[in-house]
What we know:
- The protein is an alpha+beta fold.
- The chain has helices spanning about 5-15, 20-50, 85-95, 150-155, 165-180, 200-210, 220-230, 245-255; strands at about 65-70, 75-80, 115, 120, 135.
- Helices cover about 45% and strands about 10% of the residues.
- About 30% of the residues are buried.
- One FE2/S2 (inorganic) cluster binds near residues 162, 163 and 164.
Amino acid sequence: MTRDEREVLDEMKKAGVPRREFMKMMGGAGAGLVAAQTLMEEQTYAQAASLTGGATAAPAVGVPAVSVKFMVNGAEKTLTLDARVTLLDAMRRHLGLTGSKKGCDHGQCGACTMIVDGRRVLSCLTLAGQADGKKVTTIEGIATGEELHPMQAAFIECDGFQCGYCTPGQICSAVALLDEAQRGEASYVTEDLQNPPKQLSDDEVRERMSGNICRCAAYPQILKAIQKVHQGRPVAQDWGFAGPKHLAAMKEEARHAGV
Ligand code: FES
Ligand code: FES
């Protein structure tokens, strides 16, 4: 318990508030504070970057610095950064591009996915210095002016999201995925490694998107959106878990469990 909390507790004891009520109040206040802090952080990063036009404060004395010059969403940017700054933090904190999300910060969720020189990268595991001289595309640079990228439009049309937290990463990943297919790159589920398919099956798309986690589980709609763009035509909705095969498997499981 912090000193402030102890002081409040002492005050409340004097006023006769039961400890249980106090703990409830502190829990509620804590959750509210976290949400408010997150929102303030997002606004502060965006404001700071817009005020400085993307220029950033030099790293502290004694900290190894690196100068990074790259094309970000079609515009040339130069930053002087602490050499340990990730590409994700460079975009969010130094350029105010907060569309890419920090989910796990450990390379496990895909929320931070960006496209660097045509390939998707996990920007939380990429140092900004590694992007020197390269072309970086974030979700803010996917559209052409006011016109949405077909993948963005398909995500909206197919309800490919719920809370939207993973969506910037999903869309960047999906856009780069289709280019990978065109380049003839194989995946873990590709059967003929000599001739990887250019037309991706649902399983190919699922496997290639498996690094992008969606906690709202909008996977069937995400798959539909990607296939819509990939195949260039509307595709039938496959709810997967609700198909006859899955229902039969669920019934079998229930039978074994004696339900
Ligand atoms: Fe980068 Fe989760 S934030 S993979
Ligand atoms: Fe909520 Fe994917 S839409 S995490």
